[in-house]
Amino acid sequence: MDRSHSRKPIRTTALFVDYENLYQQATRYLKRTDNLNGQLADLLYSLRRYLLARRRFRVVLGRAYADFEQYDDGLAIQRVLAEQGIVPRMVPSSYEAPSRSLQLTIDALQTLQSHPEVQAFVVVSGNRSYLPLLEHLRGHGRQIALLQLTSPSDLVYERLGDRLLLDPRPILEHAGLRQLLAHLSGPVADTPPAPPPAFASLADDPDALKALELILEHFGQYEEVYLTPLLRKMSETFDETRVEPKELINRLEAAGAVRLERRRGFPYDYTVLILHEDHPDVRRLRETLASRPEPEPEASGDLSEEDHVEDTSGEEPSAF
């Protein structure tokens, strides 16, 4: 079976974040707020990867709304958001109360008119549903999704349904924010934990299977694999005009063979890949490789400090 025809197409997506409302709700539901802006930036970073891996939504346009001057690290958070492709939109707190939500709504409607190529819209907030906006976008043939930090109301569940409401728990988990998740109280923390990843066979995806074998053969001795040297090794093996290494990692992620997690570092944050050892293809390939004679170590396999720095030149694979 040709996997390229069986997979859902990737949809270009616009992301709109009521950042101030998200921040306000987080301060209510967290016992500690140390580095909260940094944690929320990690949440949005992880969300983009979740959307690509689970929904096939690729964020091509992003906006975040807040009075960033009120935060001690307001300039830093604006820079981090901009590095993610999310444009900070300054809405002074001196404006009338609904100004922020109105600006977000106006920008989303303008995007609907001026960017017909955008096929999906995702809204992120603390406790605001933006229900009229989302229903309007859906009425114009766009796919929609809502991520609220707190549990949506019964009305929102009724009007949107479970499919369109994103659960923040797995996104927090895969962002490496388990401490943040542990401090959440209320409905979000009381819900049962996210289910374990579903495993899918790679038998019908020979390229992804070959990529998994490469990972195990050259990096399988590490608990965490730095993404930059891995992508470089994959580029030496695969014809990038036919299949991109990052897309192969996305396919391994979707099959449950690996997961990606973000790590903080200096001068740049970086991403690591972690193998799911219980995945049938991972187990089978490990057994196959273990039965082979051990090869001579390659000089190029050594990891330098430069290899630990994340390559930010292009879009990374998802973290889900």
TrEMBL record:
InterPro entries registered for this protein in UniProt: NYN
**Span list, region Disordered:** 285-320
In alphabetical order, the GO MF annotations are: RNA nuclease activity
- Which regions are flagged for Acidic residues bias? 296-314
Domain annotation NYN: ranges: 13-147
Q: Where is the composition biased (Basic and acidic residues)?
A: 285-295
Lineage, top-rank taxon, reads Bacteria
Name of this protein: NYN domain-containing protein
